[in-house]
Amino acid sequence: MNKNHNKFDRRNFLKSIGAAGLGSVFAASSIRADESKSGSTKEKAKEEGKSEFPQVPTRKLGKTGIDVSTLSFGAMFNVMDNQIILRNCLKWGVTYWDTAYGYAGGRSEQGIGQYLKKNPDIRKKLFIVTKASGANTNSQRDKRLQTSLERMNTDYVDMYYGIHGLDDPDQLTNELRDWVKNAKKEGLIRYFGFSTHENMANCLKAAAKTGWIDAIMTSYNFRVMQNSEMKEAVQTCHKAGVGLIAMKTQAGEQKIRSDEDKKLAGHFLEKGYTEGQAKIKAVLEDERISSACVGMRSINILTENVAAVLDKTKLTAKDKKVLDTYAAATCSGYCMGCSQICKQAVPQVPHVAKIMRYLMYNNSYGEHERAKKLFAQIPANVRSKLLTTDYSAAETCCPQNMPIGQLMNEAVRKLA
Ligand code: SF4
């Protein structure tokens, strides 16, 4: 990872503007006031079996009717070595825990399992979600699900995203529908859905027609929500009762690099919150989204996100305009996952959107090993063409004006 880029990331920016700025970030929330509740209030809460800390609000997850926490704990890292984060999630009522068979080579699910082994009583409070990373057949799905249950010390998962990263709606077959029916009957899963980062609008619309997809975790942020196809797809799912969980809520950016980034951060800081908090607010102001799933490796990040969700201040029209202007000015830095466009323009390299995402994991999230591992899964005959392909046709039709050729080059350099 480029260390220079990291020198001036979002958190360093906040540090650089001084403690006063950080103080105001958290003053926007009731979090501090509630933390300092008087002893008698704490005792009363304990007596009533309630948490003494403010709890993040909940929303119904589509037609499942289940109340889920509006902030979800994204556990795409080694949770075995970070058990304290789970305790802190519970403290604030962040009870939707999102993991996957493939996260951190299994150490994410194992970490949840370790915690549940020590605290079996909390299982019922949790909404545990995992994904069948890399499963292409029902028998692979069976094996992965069994492994996930064993790793997590639980008999069932609340939501199973049986396709981890759907990009082709044709994968929603009758065979899969029958598998879902059976897994529910056996009590292994309560609900079923998929996650999607590519061709999202078409995947969402197709799912709404099936009648057997309970929820979808989709990329959704201040950029994606402006796309007219996504607007229509979200409404279609909402009408059909398909629950929606947003991921990639920060649109990949975690660093302050350009003048636009500084302007955005400065605007929201004056209002009392970080631009990261503003981005979560923008997503959750869409009531059709039940929860925002955010990767939270540290208590600082968790606390910042909890504060954003607890704070009841709505974004103003001006705030939204600032986000829109920023999105337009920086569009060439974010891939919208409209892979159908790229695939048509450069059919010999049908993985452009995926490679863009892996580059984002590397550059924005600092997840070099994960990005490299995923990149290695691109078929060798496609990887061998990455540097010699002419991407000009794709660049011409890319709605984000992305310098695709240059970025494929960067991906090979950093991930191959
Ligand atoms: S590179 Fe452009 S066209 Fe291709 S998926 Fe990304 S945003 Fe869409």
Q: Can you walk through the features of this model?
A:
With 416 residues, the chain is of the alpha/beta class. It has 2 domains: 3-40 and 57-326, TIM Barrel; 335-415, no CATH class. Helix content is 49%, strand content 12%. It contains 21 helices and 10 strands. The chain has helices spanning 3-7, 10-16, 19-27, 31-35, 39-47, 83-91, 107-118, 138-151, 174-185, 200-210, 228-240, 259-271, 275-284, 299-310, 317-329, 339-345, 352-363, 368-376, 380-383, 392-397, 404-415; strands at residues 58-60, 67-69, 71-74, 96-98, 127-131, 157-164, 189-196, 215-219, 243-247, 291-295. The strands form 2 sheets. The protein has an 8-stranded parallel barrel, surrounded by 6 helices. The chain has a two-stranded antiparallel ribbon with strand order 1-2. Helix 10 (200-210) links the parallel strand 7 (189-196) and strand 8 (215-219). Helix 12 packs antiparallel against helix 15 and helix 13 packs across helix 14. The longest helix is centred in the middle third of the chain and has 14 residues, at 138-151. The two termini are 14 Å apart. Residues 335-339, 341-342, 352-353, 356, 398-400, 402, 404 line the site of iron/sulfur cluster.
Q: Secondary structure elements and their pairing?
A:
Elements: H1 3-7, H2 10-16, H3 19-27, H4 31-35, H5 39-47, E1 58-60, E2 67-69, E3 71-74, H6 83-91, E4 96-98, H7 107-118, E5 127-131, H8 138-151, E6 157-164, H9 174-185, E7 189-196, H10 200-210, E8 215-219, H11 228-240, E9 243-247, H12 259-271, H13 275-284, E10 291-295, H14 299-310, H15 317-329, H16 339-345, H17 352-363, H18 368-376, H19 380-383, H20 392-397, H21 404-415
Parallel strand pairs: 3-4, 3-10, 4-5, 5-6, 6-7, 7-8, 8-9, 9-10
Antiparallel strand pairs: 1-2
The chain binds iron/sulfur cluster.
Residues 335-339, 341-342, 352-353, 356, 398-400, 402, 404 line the site of iron/sulfur cluster.
